[in-house]
Amino acid sequence: MTVLVTGGSGLIGSHVIEALRARSEAVRALVRERGAVEGAEAVTGDVTDPAVWRRATPGVRGIVHAAALVAQRAPYAEFERVNVGGTRLAIAAARAAGARFVHVSSVAVYGRTAAYTAGANAVTEDFPFHPIPEHDFYARTKRMAEAVVRDEAGRGGVDAVAIRPNVVYGERDRLFTPRLIRAVRRGVVPRVGPGTNHLSCVYAGNVASAIVAALDAPLSAGDFRAYNVTADAPPLPTQREFIAAFADALGVRMLRVPVPVFLARAGVRVWTRWLRWRDPARYAGLGGAAVGFLIGENPYSMVRAQRELRWTPPFNARAAIRRSVAGF
Question: How confident is the model at residue 283 (pLDDT cuts 50, 70, 90)?
Fold first, then answer.
């Protein structure tokens, strides 16, 4: 039997394909652009096209839905078309195929800033959802997409899992990792606050490992379970150690410039106001969340994933960072 992975050329999707191929599973990848996908049979098409799903799903035992619009400049309607409409077709395809459905969601569904006021490990999967700013198109549509999955599973006939990562890094990343590498290579990196907090970052290979575990977890038809996957294997590095590990892997000497928290907050406020003025459709309301991420403890608990999926992250941060840098 085959596992279908959407977004197979993306960060999480490509790592899921690697993890599945490592245990000799047949993999099919749904990708937007024509071309080979290493380790998988490629199906080209748009996740919002029902005909593509009919071509992609024969003989599948599981569907991993990792495709999503994340940070591209796009109007809200496009985010909803891809993130919500695509998910609706994905779980309908899983129901028709009798396949396990694993949805790559996000901790953004809780609300960006509320989690960081809760404290370390305080945000379990039962944490109440808080308001999301109107212009945070990604968070709004990811919450809507997860609701689609939960409701469809509740109708019976399909079992579903939502994996909720936060900031994901690793080789083939197009967002966080290359920006961090560029900053470290310049040799001067700001240290916000004392740098002793633990960032809510997780290596893509660890997210993929949790997804594979979710494909095999014992669930009954109609079950829906959500799991936070937001940290690497111990030992967990502090903010300061995380950046230093990138410098070590790159072989560069780095100067850390202390930035007081009040100054970081003021800078982020100015930046977000400018961004809202310049391009309202792109503004995501991330100001407070960005500061919370930089100076706060990781608020997300992974106890449920470790207990119910019998999963532990296979990579610690130092090993993951070496793999990430080598990939770039």
Answer: very low
Tell me the fold of 2-327. Answer: Rossmann fold (3.40.50)
HSE (CB half, 13 Å, CA atoms) of 170?
24
Q: DSSP character for 199?
A: -
> What was the pLDDT predicted at 261?
64
pLDDT digits over 106-124, tens only? 999 999 888 888 888 899 9
Q: What are phi and psi of 297, to 5 degrees?
A: -75, 155
What length does the chain have? 328
Contact 166, 8 (CB under 8 A): no
Beta strands in 1-138 (DSSP E): 2-6, 26-31, 41-44, 60-65, 100-104
Residues 6 or more apart in contact with residue 65 via CB below 8 angstroms: 6, 7, 47, 86, 87, 90, 91, 101, 102, 103, 104
- Which residues partner with 201 through β-bridges? 167
Do the Cβ atoms of 26 and 16 come closer than 8 Å? no
SS3 of 65, please?
strand
Report pTM.
Answer: 0.92
